[in-house]
Design brief:
Blueprint lengths: L20 H10 L8 H14 L3 E5 L2 H11 L7 E5 L8 H5 L3 E5 L10 H14 L5 E5 L8 H11 L3 E4 L7 E2 L2 E2 L6 E5 L12 E5 L2 H11 L22 H12 L1 H19 L5 E3 L6 E2 L5 E5 L1 H4 L3 H10 L5 E2 L14 E3 L7 H8 E4 L7 H26 L1
Parallel strand pairs: 2-3, 2-4, 3-14, 4-5, 5-8
Antiparallel strand pairs: 1-9, 6-7, 6-11, 8-9, 10-12, 12-15, 13-15
Helix pairs in contact: 1-8, 2-8, 3-7, 5-6, 9-13
The structure holds pyridoxal-5'-phosphate.
The site of pyridoxal-5'-phosphate (PLP) has 14 residues, from helix 3.
GO molecular function: pyridoxal phosphate binding; transaminase activity
Cofactor: pyridoxal 5'-phosphate
GO biological process, one term: polysaccharide biosynthetic process
């Protein structure tokens, strides 16, 4: 195996500190707020709520916990159905199982790679026939691109079913001028280490329903009743965010706009240098939407490019560059093999095609010009070389 001449590994998306994090961490230490509550938690919640334009936000230990709380607030329980985007990270759907509920997976459509309104409509149509409407619809905004929220909201409103917007990857993105994560009854964000801003691990639940979010805080702190003697009338969770980690989040939020600009510039650079290669098609940005371009994603037509996604990932890996396939659709996951799935069209599964041909390129906001040059160089080389070889064989 050829050994890379490059020492530095280029990651898909690595944490990018601003330098100000330490200030908030030091404050937490100086005031001894070393707990899953405190001034940084309160401030971080208020700052996120203001940034996206909602009434309130609850800081929690992960995006997954935020989804779980949203399902609890909507009363999702044993035997209930929840519709969920199929093309996503498994964390979108795991909390459905925590509640003993049953997921129904909805395909993507080609314009946003996100939930297909057509497939959603068919799923609702069947649910009405069965007399088993879902209790919630979890809509994911993949790689920073908003789903077709207007169409999806119209359909869900028609059936009176609330939306949980999984905006784990789309903080700072907009749909028709409105912040991603604010379209559903509840929205969730993630601050995991690989997201556009990070607290190393953490999440946020947002809503305009203050009363419901008060209940979320209660559930996230072991559902402790208002009594001095530790009384509990229902089962809760330990889901609150540490005051130290919230401090990291505050400093990260201060530079979010810069991080978005950097990721969008990275996308633009890849697009300018690679979109003229045969068979490469970049993830679109729907008109009137603004993607944060968390990850630059594209599809590769093997016949035209002369190289498949897995071959290209291997070539890049040998150069110490991390690239990844697009999320494996949840309806194809062994653990969800018995779940129902609605494709975009009866005989067209968009998420499966995206999985088969989709690739995510290194997109971290801390990438240097040299890093970008390196990735671009090796992709151009591989596609052009393979093409030449293919042409020689053909002639
Ligand atoms: C990262 C992610 C989550 C989960 O967030 P965690 O903070 O890691 O629990 C949920 N949904 C999507 C789409 C994600 O990318």
């Amino acid at each position: 195996m050829s050994q890379s001449i490059y020492k530095k590994r280029i990651f898909l998306s690595s944490p990018h500190m601003s330098g100000n994090e330490q200030k908030y961490i030091n404050e937490a230490f100086a005031t001894n707020w070393i707990a899953p509550l405190g001034p940084n938690v309160d401030a971080f919640e208020a700052e996120i709520a203001q940034y996206v334009g909602v009434e309130e936000a609850v800081a929690v230990s992960s995006g997954t916990a935020a989804i779980h709380l949203a399902l609890l607030l909507l009363g999702v329980g044993k035997g209930d159905r929840v519709f969920c985007s199929s093309l996503t990270f498994i964390a979108s759907a795991n909390p459905i199982f925590y509640q003993g509920a049953e997921p129904v997976f909805i395909d993507s459509e080609p314009d946003t790679w996100n939930m297909s309104p057509q497939a959603l409509e068919r799923a609702f149509h069947d649910a009405v026939k069965d007399g088993n409407l879902p209790k919630a619809v979890i809509v994911v905004n993949l790689y920073g691109q908003s789903a077709k929220m207007e169409e999806i909201t119209d359909i869900c409103n028609q059936y009176g079913v609330p939306i949980i917007e999984d905006a784990a990857e789309s903080l700072g993105a907009k749909y028709k001028g409105k912040a991603s994560g604010t379209f559903g009854k509840y929205g969730i964000f993630s601050f995991n280490g690989n997201k556009i801003i990070t607290t190393s691990g953490g999440g946020m639940l947002v809503s305009n329903d203050r009363e419901a979010l008060q209940k979320a805080r209660f559930l996230a702190t072991q559902a402790r009743d208002a009594a001095p003697h530790y009384q509990h009338s229902q089962i809760g969770f330990n889901y609150r965010l540490s005051n130290i980690l919230a401090g990291i989040g505050r400093a990260q939020l201060e530079v979010l706009e810069e991080r978005i600009a950097a990721r969008r510039a990275i996308f633009q650079r890849y697009f300018n240098e690679l979109s003229n290669l045969p068979g490469l098609t970049f993830m679109p940005e729907l008109t009137n939407t603004f993607s944060n371009r968390w990850l630059t994603a594209l599809t590769i037509n093997k016949n035209q490019a002369g190289i498949s996604v897995s071959e290209l990932i291997e070539v890049l890996s040998q150069q110490n560059i991390e690239a990844r396939p697009v999320w494996k659709p949840l309806h194809l996951q062994p653990v969800f093999k018995d779940s129902k799935y609605y494709p975009h069209k009866l005989h067209e599964s968009v998420s499966e095609a995206l999985f088969n041909n989709g690739l995510c390129l290194p997109s971290g906001s801390n990438m240097t010009e040299d890093d970008l040059d390196r990735v671009i160089h090796h992709i151009r080389q591989s596609v052009i070389k393979r093409k030449e070889r293919a042409n020689m064989i053909n002639t």
